[in-house]
Write a sequence for this structure.
């Protein structure tokens, strides 16, 4: 084990509620196909679920919510579907930003800026700067995000610092890598939920989820709701997190 690893990095919150929930929102296309509708109909319904889950997170006292909205691999989909997904992100930000700001939500974006259209970048920048001083819940949107790309970019930035002499190779530890990722300053997810029955990470928060608990649910994202979310959190609360150590006896 890296001797410099900071144990606080893996420290769970004081009570058994997850502090950070990260969600792979999957199954919009299948939801639509089951109804004989175009995939875009599923994505539109998926935005309704996003709204419900953001509100529910506040009710459940979740400090950080990360939503996987567009992966770096989703560029392989048809152009028309990509345009629809971008349009829906814009619609969501335009419609919900005011309410989120009023609720003291801080918005953060993780993912590659490169390749995104200027109007999307401008809107995301506006949302991030408007809410920058909010100190309630943090909503992290993973957009054009891929974990391997994120780690490679971090490695590149570190290499530049080493080359310039700003950093020595021996200074490189897990904490420093964490601090170079898009998620710097955001605690690791305690709970990762994936809907739609797929049991894989699809390049989501690979580094950050080293000690996360995973809950995979069969329901498709448009059908996921506050009660399904509550059930996933209950499942998490019944898990024993050990972080490589021994389970703490909380009874004494
Ligand atoms: C999730 O639903 C939304 C995104 C990946 C953007 P999908 O579009 O992946 O839906 P399925 O997996 O095809 O059902
Ligand atoms: C993961 O879902 C990406 C998002 C939810 C944004 P995908 O539907 O793209 O993942 P795969 O292709 O099934 O692994
Ligand atoms: Mg999918």
């Amino acid at each position: 084990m890296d001797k410099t690893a900071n144990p606080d990095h893996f420290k769970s919150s004081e009570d058994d509620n997850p502090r950070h929930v990260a969600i792979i929102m999957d199954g919009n296309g299948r939801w639509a196909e089951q109804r004989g509708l175009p995939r875009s109909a599923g994505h539109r319904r998926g935005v309704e679920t996003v709204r419900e889950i953001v509100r529910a997170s506040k009710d459940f006292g979740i400090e950080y919510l990360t939503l996987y909205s567009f992966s770096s691999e989703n560029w392989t989909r048809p152009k028309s579907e990509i345009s629809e997904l971008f349009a829906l992100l814009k619609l969501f930000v335009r419609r919900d930003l005011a309410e989120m700001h009023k609720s003291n939500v801080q918005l953060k974006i993780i993912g590659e800026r490169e390749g995104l259209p200027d109007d999307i970048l401008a809107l995301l920048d506006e949302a991030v700067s408007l809410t920058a001083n909010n100190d309630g819940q943090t909503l992290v949107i993973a957009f054009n995000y891929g974990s391997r790309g994120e780690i490679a970019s971090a490695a590149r930035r570190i290499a530049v610092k080493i080359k310039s002499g700003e950093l020595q190779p021996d200074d490189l530890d897990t904490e420093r890598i964490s601090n170079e990722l898009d998620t710097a300053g955001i605690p690791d997810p305690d709970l990762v939920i994936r809907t739609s029955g797929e049991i894989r990470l699809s390049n989501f928060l690979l580094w950050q989820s080293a000690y996360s608990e995973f809950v995979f649910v069969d329901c498709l994202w448009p059908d996921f709701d506050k009660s399904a979310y509550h059930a996933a959190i209950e499942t998490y609360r019944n898990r024993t997190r050990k972080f490589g150590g021994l389970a703490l006896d909380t009874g004494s």
